[in-house]
Amino acid sequence: MKKSFTILAALMVSAAAFAQGLNFSGSWKLNGEKSKLNAEFSFAPKEIIITQSGNDMSVEKHSSFQDQDFVTTDKLTLDGKECLNTGFQDTQKKSTCTWSEDKASLKIISKMSIGDGDMTITEVYKMDGSNMVLESSASSSYGDLNETIVYDKK
After folding, report:
1. Is residue 135 part of a domain?
2. Does 70 fall in a domain?
3. Residue 6 within any structural domain of the chain
4. Tens digit of pLDDT for each residue in 43-95?
5. Do 95 and 80 touch, CB atoms closer than 8 A?
6. pLDDT band (50, 70, 90) for residue 20
7. Residue 91 covered by a domain
8. 3-state class (DSSP) for residue 6
């Protein structure tokens, strides 16, 4: 009886974790060799630090642009509700997160105003073995950018 209860409890914990989706928590370093980056200009952060707990997720991106390093941090919820964060040049960025039906990937869609138009950024986080893969696309009046960015866990 005790063994059955232990097995049942373990199955319930596993099912609850699966229902929430993957946990991307950790420090992730860009693997440029495995990534497919835009040759002219890339949005790929050198490092991403993710803290994920329950319905909350924090994504800290360490990037460089024109020889200047900068850090952005987004506070998100994993329930599809809109979250507000500071975007490029202190714009307001509105983001929503949704899990794929099989809970194997997390899609974040962010929208913000830039210059005289709007920008939509779609990021899909998933795992490939021990690597985190970020499929990123950006669309604005300046054009479109698509990248597949691979990260190794530090």
Report:
1. yes
2. yes
3. no
4. 899 999 999 999 999 999 999 888 889 899 999 999 999 999 988 778 899 99
5. no
6. low
7. yes
8. helix
